[in-house]
């Protein structure tokens, strides 16, 4: 039975300090090359390219519509995503999208743990970018550790100034790109550059610049470990069958140098493959020792796998001492049983089918939704009024939605009420609705009714003959008291 360790201070921390004896309080990861590092660079490039390019992609929607492919239009109250247009009243689509994202995260966790965190999370992407700048300016891990507490030189002063300057530029580009999703990107970009943008735009650029600079520059591992809620859920959804980064201790223990291991093997005594080089710890962006067992702070980035494999190759030992492996296989290894990987199992299949089903439902719903909609709200005070001729009158607020890019005329009728009549205040029963807008109408319905009746309001498109309807209730005077 495995437990997720919540403390990632290694007992061998003193072995990882700089030669000067200065204790490094922050995590200073070392660079590494390998297949998983290459995957992370690929993910970084793809994610940044999507983030910075997406606002400038155009999508033709009609003469009265914005042509930005992805746009959160607060002025119109719309969310545009290529051919999809979401109105405020269709917030259930956003709810469905959030549920879908949650299912995908849980599904990925069942397959490979926190692999989202290690490769695609914005915090990870920008942290990797900031670390790249840091290494370019100050050098790799050993150089940066040796510079801590060292006397200042002209070069060091220059490095201290250049690194935060580049970070601030990246952070400003991050904040500037984000607000481009909320207005026409080319226009807003020119306004930002020429000082003509609104105060609110500059304020949000400043806020996002500060948060990016702080979180990616100074609170890297703290965000992934303590600020993000996702690690806290690992204890509840951790799956021992998931391919998470694990140390094959049944193969690596007891640890010792290559020379000592050779001597022990020559004597017929047990010796593990781990040489206790600490490379797996030095490259970890969180600063944990994966050899100490499963840890909820591990983001499954695989850099320790690359580091360990590089050492094993040099020692001409098999790779995979640290690898993406199921915890059940670690336990099987202790029992010397055959290892089995079960990516396809009831949990992953069930979650996968749930994702497909939800995507299908949302897709069908989007494809079948009408460009016209009608909603009706009954007056609450008074609920009903008796007229001088004995008839009962109810008042309603009717809203017509025209999602098309052309104006349309609708004929409003009420059905299900014998002897009933309808009156639109300030207009007749045929009303016009401008393109891509809604129109609110005040409607009175009168009838010689003495009991509660279900009625339907119907809006018929005069040009096409298509109809939409909304149900409501006609209430007599007695029902309103």
Automatic annotation (TrEMBL):
Record's keyword terms, sorted: 4Fe-4S, Electron transport, Iron, Iron-sulfur, Membrane, Metal-binding, Transmembrane, Transmembrane helix, Transport
Domain (4Fe-4S ferredoxin-type) ranges: 288-318
Gene3D superfamilies xrefs: Alpha-helical ferredoxin, Immunoglobulins
Membrane-spanning ranges: 41-60, 91-110, 165-182, 202-219, 349-368
SUPFAM superfamilies for the chain: 4Fe-4S ferredoxins (SSF54862)
Organism: Microvirga arabica
Pfam families named in the record: Fer4_18, Fer4_5, FixG_C
UniProt key word Cell membrane: no
Protein name: Cytochrome c oxidase accessory protein CcoG
InterPro entries tied to this protein: 4Fe4S_Fe-S-bd, 4Fe4S_Fe_S_CS, Cyt_c_oxidase_cbb3_FixG, Electron_Trans/Redox, FixG_C, Helical_ferredxn, Ig-like_fold
PROSITE patterns xrefs: 4FE4S_FER_1, 4FE4S_FER_2
